[in-house]
Design brief:
The chain is of the alpha/beta class. The protein is built from 33 helices and 13 strands. Strands 6, 7, 8, 9, 10, 11, 12 and 13 form an eight-stranded mixed sheet that branches. The protein has a five-stranded mixed sheet with strand order 3-2-1-4-5.
C-alpha cells in the first residue's frame, strides 16, 4: 500500500474509541500505598471496563484522602488525567498533569518524571500539538532509559510513534513502535503490545507494501485472541477492524473475502464483549462500524439494521460524538437506496447533532491534517447535496425556495466551521450573532455560491433574496485541477497560457448564469468560494474578449453570515499606516512603501487623521500601544505576510518579529464587538502557496479574525511598484467617489491597470482581493 492515500480514519490513533495510553497499568509500576488500595483498585477496574466517569469518582476520593505520600499523589493524578482525557476534558487533563509534573520535579525521581512526561506528551497530542508532544515523549524516553523503567519506556516510545505519524515521519514512527512492542512483550504487557502493534499497522499502511500490511494485520489479530475478555480486547478488535476496512479499499487486494471475514468477526466479537460489559458507548461503536462494513460491501438492508442498533446504543449512552456519525451513515444508506426524504431526515439529524460538538471533535491526535474535510464537511455538504436535488425536482416554487434556502444555510454552516477549524477559535462562531440579515441586499448585487460536488457543479445565485440553482456537468476534481492550472499560469509572466484555463472556468462558473445576471442588471458579484476555487481571483475569468472584472465589481467572502456590512465612513476617522521598506529577517526590501504611505496620507488629508509607523518603529508592542490609546477605522500594513496551511505558520512580518493571526487579533481586539468596528484592514504584500487552498482559507478569513469589516489583501506577492500604484489608487477611488462601494473602487483600480500595457497581465492586478464587506 506504499504511496496509497489512506483515509483519515485509517490513521486515527484509536479514534473515538479510547485513548491508547492506559495509565492505570503504568501506574502499578510505581508502588501504591495500602491506604488507598481499595479505591484505586475499584477505579482501575472501572477504567479498564470503559467506565471513565465512574473511575474518576473513585480516584477523586483517593485524592481527598491524600496523606502526604508524594509518589501516591502522582499515581492518583496520572490516573485521573487518563480518565479526564478519555472524557475529552482537556482543561482538567492539563491542570491535573501540571500538579503531577510539579510533584515529580520536587522528588527528583527520574522514573516518576518519565511517567508524567509520557502522559503529558499524550495530552498534548490530544489537542493536536504534535511537535510539543514529540519533545515531551523524547524527554520521557530519556528519563525512562535512565531509570531503567521498561514499561514506562514502552509507552513513551508509543507516544513518540504517535506524534511522528501526525508529522508524517512514518519510518521513524515504525522504528519507535517496533522497540515499544518488543519492550511490552518483554515485560509481559500484552495489551500494550497489541495497542502498539495496531499503531504500527496504521503507519505501515502509508509506508509499506500491501502484502506486508496484510501480514501485520494477521499477526495483530492473532495477538488480540490472547487478550482477556474485557474492554481492552473489544477496543482493540474495533480498532483493528477499522484498519482492515481501509485495507479492503485497495483495488489490488487478492485476499478480499478473507479480510472481509476477519473484519466481520472482529466487529462481532467486539459487540459481544461490549454487551457483556453493558457498555453502551462501545456497543454502539462496534455495531456502527459493522454497519459501515456492510455499507462498504453494498449490503444495504443489513447495513441499515446494524446502523439503527448503533444509533440506539449511542442514545442510551448520551454520546453525540458517535451518534452524529451513525445518523450520517444512515443518511448515506438511505441515499443509496433512493430514499431521498429519509436520507434528508437522517442528514438533518446528523447536522443538528454535530454542530454543538464539532470544535471538540476536530481536536486531537485522533486526527491528522484534513480532519475537517473528512469528518465535518461531508455531513453538511451531504445534506446540502440532497436539498439541492430535492429543490431541482420540486414542482412547487415556494417549496423549491425553501429547500434552496436551507441548502445555502447548510453551506454557510460549513463556512463558519471551516474558519473555526483553521484558526482553532470558537469566537468565530460568536460572530454569527453580530451578522446582519442579507436576504435583501442591493438589487444589483448577486451572491454567488459555486458548490463543487462529486458528480456535478451546482451554482446558486441569490438576487434580492431569491435563489436560483444552475447545474453544470463538471465535477469537483475537474474544477480543482483547472483552478490549480489557472493559478500557476497567472503567476507566470509574461506568457498568456492562463487564458485557456480562465476561459474554461468562465464557461463553467459564469456563462451558465450570464443571462440571469444580465436580466437583473447585476454590477457586483459577491463570491463565496469553496476548496481550490479559493486559490484563484475570480476577476481573471475570461469570456474570450474581456476579464470578468471588466464587467462586474467582485468581492470575496468566506461566508455571508459572518458579515456586518456597512459603507465606510470617513468623517473624523483615524488611519494607522504601517510599513517595512527595509530588508529584514531575510525578506527583500519594499522600496516603494514610504511613497505608498505618504500618498495615502496625502489622499486622505482633510477627511481622516493618520499616524505612521515605519521600519524600526514597527514592533508588536508599539502596534499594541497605538491601539490601546486610539480607535482606528483603517489599518494599512505594507509588510510581508505569509499564509500557510498551518495557522501557526501564518504571520505578518514586523521589524524584528513575526506577528501571528492570534497576536493580530489580540492587538486589534475583537473589533467586531466594539461600538465602532475596524472598517478596513489592508495587507499589501501577502502571499499564499500556489496549491494550498487551506492557506487561501486563512487569507479569506483574515478580516474576520482581525475584527475588520473588510480586508484588502493579495493572493501572491507582486511587483512592489505595481502594489504601491494599485493600493494608492484604491484609496483615491474611495475618497473621490464616496458613493461607490469598496468593490467598485477595486474594480476601477484593476480596470485602470489592465488599460496600461505595462500592467495588463493579471499577475500584476489580479492578486488584489476585497474580502468581507463589499459596501
Amino acid at each position: 500500500m506504499k504511496n496509497k492515500k489512506i483515509g483519515l480514519f485509517g490513521l486515527t490513533i484509536v479514534g473515538i474509541i479510547a485513548l491508547l495510553t492506559n495509565t492505570t497499568g503504568l501506574a502499578k509500576e510505581v508502588q501504591t500505598g495500602d491506604t488507598y488500595a481499595p479505591l484505586m483498585s475499584q477505579g482501575d477496574a472501572l477504567f479498564q471496563q470503559g467506565y471513565f466517569q465512574a473511575a474518576t469518582k473513585h480516584w477523586e476520593k483517593s485524592l481527598a484522602l491524600f496523606d502526604g505520600n508524594t509518589n501516591q499523589h502522582i499515581n492518583i493524578l496520572t490516573r485521573l488525567a487518563a480518565a479526564y482525557q478519555n472524557l475529552g476534558m482537556h482543561s482538567a487533563v492539563f491542570q491535573t498533569l501540571e500538579q503531577a509534573i510539579s510533584l515529580a520535579e520536587k522528588t527528583q525521581d527520574v522514573k516518576q518524571s518519565a511517567l508524567v512526561l509520557s502522559q503529558l506528551s499524550d495530552a498534548w497530542l490530544s489537542i493536536g500539538e504534535s511537535k510539543e508532544a514529540l519533545l515531551l515523549a523524547n524527554n520521557s524516553i530519556a528519563d525512562a532509559r535512565k531509570a531503567q523503567a521498561p514499561k514506562i519506556l514502552a509507552r513513551a516510545l508509543n507516544n513518540q510513534g504517535n506524534a511522528l505519524i501526525i508529522l508524517q515521519n512514518y519510518p521513524e514512527a515504525i522504528k519507535a513502535y517496533n522497540e515499544s512492542a518488543k519492550l511490552a512483550k518483554q515485560v509481559g504487557d500484552l495489551e500494550l503490545a497489541v495497542r502498539v502493534s495496531i499503531n504500527r499497522l496504521k503507519a505501515e499502511m502509508s509506508h509499506s507494501s500491501l502484502d506486508d500490511v496484510i501480514r501485520i494485520q494477521e499477526e495483530v489479530y492473532a495477538m488480540i485472541g490472547n487478550l482477556p475478555y474485557n474492554y481492552e480486547k473489544a477496543n482493540s478488535l474495533v480498532s483493528l477492524g477499522r484498519q482492515s476496512q481501509f485495507i479492503l479499499q485497495s483495488p489490488t487486494l487478492a485476499k478480499r473475502q478473507k479480510i472481509i471475514l476477519s473484519t466481520y468477526q472482529a466487529f462481532m466479537e467486539a459487540v459481544q464483549i461490549a454487551k457483556h460489559l453493558q457498555n453502551n458507548h462501545l456497543t454502539s461503536i462496534a455495531y456502527g462500524y459493522l454497519g459501515q462494513l456492510y455499507e462498504q460491501e453494498h449490503r444495504l438492508n443489513s447495513a441499515l439494521s446494524l446502523t439503527r442498533q448503533a444509533i440506539f446504543f449511542a442514545k442510551q449512552g448520551n454520546n453525540p460524538h458517535i451518534l452524529y456519525r451513525w445518523y450520517w451513515q444512515q443518511g448515506r444508506i438511505f441515499k443509496a437506496q433512493g430514499e431521498l426524504e429519509a436520507a434528508i431526515a437522517a442528514y438533518r439529524l446528523a447536522s443538528v447533532t454535530l454542530k454543538p460538538i464539532q470544535s471538540v471533535l476536530e481536536m486531537g491526535y485522533r486526527t491528522l491534517p484534513g480532519t475537517f474535510d473528512e469528518v465535518v464537511k461531508p455531513v453538511y455538504y451531504g445534506l446540502a447535496d440532497l436539498l439541492l436535488q430535492k429543490a431541482a425536482i420540486s414542482q412547487d416554487a415556494v417549496a423549491q425556495q425553501r429547500f434552496l434556502k436551507e441548502a445555502v444555510a447548510t453551506v454557510e454552516l460549513v463556512k463558519v466551521a471551516e474558519l473555526q477549524d483553521y484558526f482553532q477559535d470558537d469566537c468565530i462562531l460568536a460572530l454569527q450573532s453580530k451578522a446582519t440579515e442579507l436576504d435583501y441586499i442591493s438589487s444589483q448585487t448577486a451572491i454567488l455560491y459555486p458548490i463543487p460536488l462529486q458528480d456535478r457543479l451546482v451554482i446558486i445565485v441569490s438576487i434580492t433574496g431569491k435563489f436560483h440553482q444552475t447545474v453544470v456537468p463538471v465535477n469537483a476534481e475537474q474544477i480543482n485541477q483547472i483552478s490549480w492550472d489557472l493559478r500557476v499560469g497567472l503567476q507566470t509572466r509574461p506568457n498568456n497560457r492562463f487564458i485557456y484555463h480562465a476561459w474554461q472556468l468562465y464557461d463553467w462558473l459564469i456563462r451558465p448564469i450570464e443571462t440571469l445576471l444580465t436580466v437583473h442588471q447585476i454590477d457586483t458579484l459577491v463570491v463565496v468560494p469553496d476548496g481550490k476555487l479559493r486559490l484563484i481571483p475570480f476577476s481573471t475569468l475570461h469570456d474570450g474578449k474581456h476579464f470578468l472584472i471588466e464587467k462586474y465589481a467582485i468581492a470575496l467572502t468566506p461566508g455571508l453570515t459572518l458579515l456586518d456590512p456597512k459603507p465606510i465612513r470617513w468623517d473624523n476617522s483615524k488611519i494607522l499606516l504601517i510599513g517595512l521598506s527595509e530588508a529584514v529577517q531575510e525578506y527583500p526590501p519594499l522600496p516603494n512603501v514610504l511613497k505608498e504611505l505618504q500618498s495615502i496620507q496625502d489622499i486622505t488629508q482633510g477627511i481622516a487623521n493618520s499616524k505612521r509607523m515605519l521600519n524600526a518603529q514597527y514592533s508588536i508592542e508599539n502596534f499594541r500601544n497605538q491601539l490601546r490609546t486610539t480607535e482606528y477605522s483603517v489599518i494599512h500594513l505594507a509588510t510581508h505576510a505569509e499564509f500557510n496551511t498551518d495557522p501557526e505558520q501564518t504571520y505578518l512580518l514586523t521589524y524584528q518579529e513575526k506577528m501571528t493571526m492570534n497576536e493580530l487579533q489580540e492587538v486589534i481586539g475583537l473589533g467586531q464587538f466594539r461600538e465602532n468596528s475596524l472598517e478596513l484592514l489592508t495587507l499589501s504584500a501577502c502571499q499564499t502557496a500556489v496549491g494550498d487552498d487551506r492557506a487561501a482559507l486563512g487569507l479569506a478569513g483574515v478580516a474576520i479574525k482581525a475584527g475588520a469589516r473588510s480586508a484588502l489583501a493579495t493572493l501572491w506577492f507582486i511587483d512592489d511598484e505595481a502594489t504601491s500604484i494599485a493600493v494608492t489608487e484604491f484609496y483615491r477611488q474611495l475618497v473621490q467617489h464616496p458613493g461607490h462601494s469598496k468593490a467598485k473602487a477595486l474594480q476601477n483600480v484593476q480596470k485602470k491597470l489592465i488599460a496600461q500595457i505595462r500592467y495588463w497581465h493579471p499577475s500584476y492586478w489580479a492578486p488584489f482581493l476585497l474580502i468581507g464587506n463589499w459596501l
